[in-house]
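Complex 254.
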Amino acid sequence: MKLIAAKDYAGLSRKAANIISAQVIMKPSAVLGLATGSTPLGAYRQLIDWHQKGDVDFSRAVSVNLDEYLGLSGAQEQSYRYFMDQNFFSHINIRRECTFVPDGLAGDPQAECARYNQIIRGLGGIDLQLLGIGGNGHIGFNEPGAAFEKETHLVELTESTRRSNARFFQSPDQVPTHAITMGIRSIMQAKKILLLASGENKASALWNSFFGPVTPGVPASILQLHNDCTVIADEPALSLIRKNTGWEDMVYDN
Ligand code: PGA
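Predicted structure with 2-phosphoglycolic acid bound:
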């Protein structure tokens, strides 16, 4: 794992956008695994800016998102399909039919999970998977549990995740109880992983994930076993790692 320190959120976003644009420049038909949430927003804004200046071309890129709430349609503001359209896809030249997000309104969620697995397989896997991290160490909606779930699956969201996502809804009880998420195997099979963490509320998840034991109780800890995983974190998110390891440099490589 390579851990890169960023001074602040703006720096983190620029570094992340640099890595994503380099991927698309090196391989224009790249399959990008994308994430929602507050953390990647700055990177998406930076990529939009570079795209609009003519520096990054997404016309041959394909994207496959990590997850979607069950019960929300893509037209609903809180859905992850809507988030991606509003915050990224509608501002760049990726072809809409090449952007994949699980269907939150699927009548048969298990069949939707199987369909999504097929999509990922059919694309030949993911070149670069962008990840945020939950305060509880989740990646995508792979919540802490007794085992690592391998494939795309239906998940019951933990109370802490629902509470933390309530900020996007009018009231906490509107947060869906379930979601469809890509599984740990698909994430781990991505050729490259880029995980972003910003803010002090991520400090303990980051410490536990990358310096603690590999355990399904901290889903992101599995990334310690990936051989091309880059983590970019701002100083507040790094605070526990700095304190516990005495590490002072900008890049930590192990
Ligand atoms: P956030 O969410 O970027 O909104 O903090 C990250 C996550 O829960 O994976």
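The chain is about 35% helix and 20% strand.
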